[in-house]
UniProtKB/TrEMBL annotation:
Listed SMART domains: REC
Top-level taxon: Bacteria
Protein name per its UniProtKB record: Response regulator
InterPro entries the record matches: CheY-like_superfamily, Sig_transdc_resp-reg_receiver
Annotated GO biological process: phosphorelay signal transduction system
Pfam families linked to this entry: Response_reg
Originating species: Candidatus Desulfatibia profunda
Limits of the Response regulatory domain: 1-113
Length: 167
């Protein structure tokens, strides 16, 4: 997703970044950006701060609150470096100063996407383990300690097989 209040610059980014694998949404108004982020699970946001200034940082905070795994890449001018620093402190993945190399931005978008997927996988793995422990605890409470141990061993073996298949 691209959030950029300069409509021409934002459309130019959309055209230059669109490819066969990326679906790019564009918002040039903060109200539209908020609606999209609330409704859709966005992987990566490219956020222009030049014209938005502090409002852009408010959008960054909102994104991180609603979609903590969504990665945000800031685009800014060198005259407003303090905004970029503040954005990084708020959890932005990276920042680019205008002018920038579009291929470098593509690479960082891909890196941000991969990081988001890794975070989601780690969370899913943690939730799966928690669920398994709760099931085993239920067996143990019912006096079936051997069943609990056997269940956990089978689940661990199944997770190990799944993890090695992905390699």
């Amino acid at each position: 997703m691209i959030i950029e209040s300069d409509h021409m610059f934002g459309n130019n980014l959309v055209q230059r970044l669109t490819n066969e694998t990326w679906q790019i949404l564009f918002a040039d108004r903060l109200s539209d950006a908020k609606k999209i982020v609330k409704r859709k699970n966005i992987d990566v946001v490219v956020l222009g701060l030049n014209a938005m200034k502090r409002e852009g940082l408010a959008i960054l905070k909102m994104i991180k609150k609603i979609r903590p795994f969504t990665e945000v890449i800031i685009i800014n001018s060198s005259e407003q470096i303090a905004l970029s620093i503040e954005g990084m402190k708020l959890g932005a993945f990276d920042d680019f100063m205008v002018p920038f190399d579009i291929d470098s931005l593509r690479i960082r978008i891909q890196d941000a996407w991969q990081q988001k997927k890794q975070k989601e996988t780690a969370k899913k793995s943690l939730l799966d383990r928690y669920r398994d422990i709760m099931i085993a605890a239920t067996f143990a409470e019912a006096g079936e300690s051997d069943m609990a141990i056997e269940f956990l061993a089978k689940r661990k073996k199944a997770r190990t097989k799944t993890n090695t298949k992905g390699d």
